Structures are given as structure tokens and as C-alpha cells.
Amino acid sequence: MAIDAAFFALVALVIFIGVIIYLKLPGRITAMLDERSKKIAADLEAAARLREEAQALLAEYERKRKAAEDEAAEIIEAAREDANRLTREAAISLADLVVRRTKAVEEKIALAEAQAIAEVMARSADLAVEAARLVLSEQMKNKSEEFVAQAIRDISAKLN
């Protein structure tokens, strides 16, 4: 049997495997792989736990968002109802104001009309008195002698 390169490769391989077994490398590699698989399992477990927490938070925030949307819708509806109510009240108030102002203006007009009529009547009475005075004074100028003579006769008749 000749010693060739294949024989030396076989001997080197056997020595290499012997050294690996002597140094207990397969156990160490297995322990490292087991430790690595445990770490990966723990990471997967933590990831699953985090995923569940994230889903719970998402569900909670969805509920809060829905509640906030419902509350916003209620606030908008309440504001709309308030605006409608205030509009109706303002319309009623405006109508009452128009009625009151119209009544006040009508009363002022009636008062001004009554004052105007009173002024016209007073002025008419003043003019009638002045006209009567002028007519009487004119007649007195013309007939003053007759009235004086008549008065004297009346007085002498009463004295006798």
C-alpha cells in the first residue's frame, strides 16, 4: 500500500474529528444553538406579546376615536339645535320689536295729529275772536253814538 495524498487527507480528517470530539465542540455548538433557539423563542414570545398589546391599544384607541366622533356629532347637533332655537327666538323678538315700534310710531303720529288739531282749533278760535273784535270795533265806530244815546235813555228810564 502506497502512502499517497488520499491517505494523508484521511489521517488529517480522523485527527481533526478526534480533536473536535476531544475538545467537546459538538456539545458546545449544540449548547450554543440551543441557547440561540431559546433566545429566538423568547424574542418571538415577546414579539407576540407586543403584538397583542398593540392590538389592544389599537382597539382602545378605535373605541376612543369612535366615542370622540359620537361626542363631536352630539356637540354639532346640539349647536345646530341651539342655532335654530336662537334663530326662532330672534325672529320672534324681532317681530315683537317691530310690533312695539309700529305701535309707538302710531301713537306718536296720533299724538302729533291731536296736537295739530288742537293747535288748528286754538288758532281758529284766536282768529275768530280777533275777527269778532274787529267787526265789533268797526260796528262800534259806526254806531257808537247810537249806543251811547240808547244807554243814556235806558239809564234815565231806570232812574225815573
What descriptive keywords fit this protein?
2 helices, 160 residues, mainly alpha
How would you describe this structure to a colleague?
By secondary structure, the chain is an all-alpha fold. Helix content is 96%, strand content 0%. The protein has 2 helices and no strands. It has helices at 5-22, 25-159. The longest helix has 135 residues, at 25-159. The protein is rod-shaped and about 210 Å long. The mean pLDDT is 88.
What's the structural blueprint in terms of helices and strands?
Elements: H1 5-22, H2 25-159
Q: Total helix count?
A: 2
- How far the N terminus sits from the C terminus, by CA atoms, comes to 212 Å
Unreliable stretches covering 5 or more consecutive residues: none
Compute the number of strand runs.
0
Helix content estimate: over 70%
Class inferred from helices and paired strands: mainly alpha
Rg over CA atoms, rounded to whole Å, is 65 Å
Main pleated sheet = none
Order of helices and strands: HH
Strand content: under 5%
Global mean pLDDT: 88
The multimeric state of the shown protein is single chain
Gross geometry = rod-shaped
